[in-house]
Design brief:
With 513 residues, the chain is α+β, with helices and mostly antiparallel strands. The chain folds into three domains: 250 residues, Bira Bifunctional Protein, Domain 2 (BirA Bifunctional Protein, domain 2); 110 residues, Herpes Virus-1 (2-Layer Sandwich), CATH 3.30.40; 120 residues, 3-Layer(aba) Sandwich (Rossmann fold), CATH 3.40.50.800. The chain is 40% helix and 24% strand. The protein has 18 helices and 23 strands. The strands form seven sheets. The chain has a seven-stranded mixed β-sheet with strand order 3-9-10-16-13-12-11. Strands 20-19-21-22-23 form a five-stranded mixed β-sheet, with helices on both faces. A three-stranded antiparallel β-sheet has the order 5-4-6. Helix 2 packs parallel to helix 18 and helix 5 packs antiparallel against helix 7. It is found in: Cytoplasm.
Length: 513
């Protein structure tokens, strides 16, 4: 099965088991907008809790806020979004499809990386135990040729993006002979800029209403509240402000399911530091955020850093944490050193002093900022992509299982009476009621026990608690582990501690602390 086929199966699985639905589906849907179903919203909330607790509970100097989506339009002038929040778009004249020019080039670069990896694997098979990958990459003529061309194009793209050279981007597409995935032709238009912000009106009368914007990021809500939080919380530099909230971008080239959407959710933390110390803090937060991802147990090799060659107008350093999705390595989180650009611009545009008095140095200054920004929806897709497995069992049967981290699982445990009589449902309900205030628990008595196990595997439930006739005799139940399918007898009184040790959020946070 190809990765593309696997991804299509995952998308279908998400709908079948109540994770993610197309928005307004009974009206044929709305492009690049999705709704979270009963399982999806639980997974999403658990991811948000993991992030929020890791920020605000494990760091004494990080607090949270929840800023409004609507903001004064001058906020977006100060931030640069009104004048510069654009994507370079190009159309194929034959298919009439529109693409982001930089994404087309990035996809071409990714294909070159795949070619290099294939050459490396050929060398590994040829030389066996004597294979030295570093030497092979440095000396193999074919690898050297592909690498040189790849690096040249990457450098040209970075230069064109930094210079806003739209003709240069188009020329790269022509030179690399990139074809439209739909028509297969290279009949391209010129590259144009397209602003991504949604606007709307605020006011009681349309003629007298003012234009405002749906926020394209959550960070500005933190910056305009910097003084409010710092003064009321008596915060001392260095400190951070965290926020989870919706953002909106009019993505023309939305694709890959929930990876790129028009309405999405962000988890952002802005960490304020002394000028001159920002790059040291940038390095610390890069490593801290990578630890957060790797603690999920999806394999260290499935993550990598991508340091930006094209820096945003506000940054002096930037890196992405990328995850290996079925469609290749893609960004799940960005770490940026934003300098003092944001607070400085808001001071300029508002006419209000936004300064921090540092009692230790006796100075008053605009703090520098390190940002960590992660997409909730991309994290949901990452967890689902990493966890989705189709397994062939020893008895010849097959099962589909979501092997996602137990603390993030939508349902922590399922309580299953073996039969619907002999007092077993009553025992099962008592167990469920003991757990329901702390965990999301399912009760299921329909179909054979084997089918019920399969249903729980498909939604990622880590533990199945089966109540049988022995339970009525000695107060024990059978607990089945999702990943190993091993079963053990456990006293009913021990179940809460077992669920907490397996699926409680503390098990995950302890890895970070």
């Amino acid at each position: 099965m190809t990765q593309e086929e696997l991804f299509k199966k995952l998308v279908a699985h998400c709908k079948e088991y109540g994770f993610i639905f197309p928005s307004s589906e009974i009206y044929d849907g709305l492009s690049a907008v999705y709704d979270y179903g009963q399982m999806g919203v639980e997974l999403k909330n658990n991811i948000k809790r993991y992030w929020w607790d890791s920020m605000t509970k494990l760091h004494d100097n990080i607090v949270g806020i929840d800023a409004a989506i609507f903001m004064h339009p001058r906020v977006w002038e100060a931030s640069g979004h009104v004048g510069a929040f654009n994507d370079p778009l190009i159309d194929n004249k034959d298919s009439k499809k529109r693409y982001r020019a930089d994404v087309l080039i990035e996809d071409w670069i990714a294909k070159q990386d795949e070619k290099i990896d294939k050459e490396v694997e050929k060398g590994r098979k040829r030389f066996g135990e004597r294979f030295d990958e570093e030497q092979f990459r440095a000396t193999n003529p074919r690898v050297a040729e592909i690498t040189a061309k790849r690096n040249e194009i990457n450098t040209r793209m970075a230069q064109a993006l930094n210079a806003n050279d739209l003709d240069g981007l188009r020329q790269i597409i022509i030179d690399t002979e990139i074809a439209c995935p739909i028509s297969g032709t290279r009949n391209w238009t010129e590259v144009r800029q397209f602003n991504l912000m949604f606007d709307t009106k605020i006011g009681s009368v349309a003629d007298g209403a003012n234009t405002i914007y749906l926020r394209p990021e959550t960070a500005q809500g933190i910056f305009v509240n910097f003084l409010n939080v710092q003064k009321t919380g008596r915060m001392k530099i260095p400190f951070g402000i965290a926020q989870i909230g919706k953002a909106f971008r009019n993505e023309i080239v939305a694709r890959q399911f929930i990876f790129r959407m028009r309405e999405f959710e962000q988890m952002e933390m802005q960490f304020f530091v002394r000028p001159g110390e920002e790059l040291a803090w940038f390095a610390k937060w890069k490593e801290a955020r990578m630890r957060w991802h790797r603690a999920l147990g999806f394999g260290d090799d499935n993550y990598r850093f991508h340091d930006h060659e094209k820096l945003a107008h506000y940054a002096n350093a930037a890196a992405d944490i990328e995850f290996r999705f079925p469609f290749g390595f893609k960004e799940v989180e960005g770490v940026h050193s934003r300098t003092d650009f944001d607070l400085g611009r808001h001071e300029e545009f508002s006419g209000k002093k936004i300064r921090y008095y540092d009692a230790e140095t006796g100075e008053s200054y605009i703090p520098y900022v390190i940002e960590t920004s992660i997409g909730v929806d991309r994290m949901v897709l990452q967890v689902l992509s990493a966890g989705y497995q189709e397994e062939k069992l020893e008895n010849g049967e097959e099962r589909t299982v979501l092997s996602i981290p137990a603390p993030l699982a939508p349902v922590k445990a399922a309580v299953l009476p073996l039969v619907k009589k002999d007092g077993l449902p009553e025992i099962a309900h008592r167990i469920k009621n003991t757990l329901r205030y702390d965990y999301n628990i399912q009760y299921d008595e329909k179909d054979s026990i084997g089918k019920r196990y399969r249903r729980q595997d498909a939604i990622g439930t880590p533990l199945c608690i089966t109540v049988d006739h022995q339970s009525a005799e000695d107060g024990t139940v059978t607990v089945r582990d999702r990943d190993t399918m091993r079963q053990e007898r456990v006293n009913i009184e021990a179940i809460p501690a077992l669920v907490e040790s397996k699926a409680g959020m503390r098990a995950l946070l302890d890895k970070l602390a």
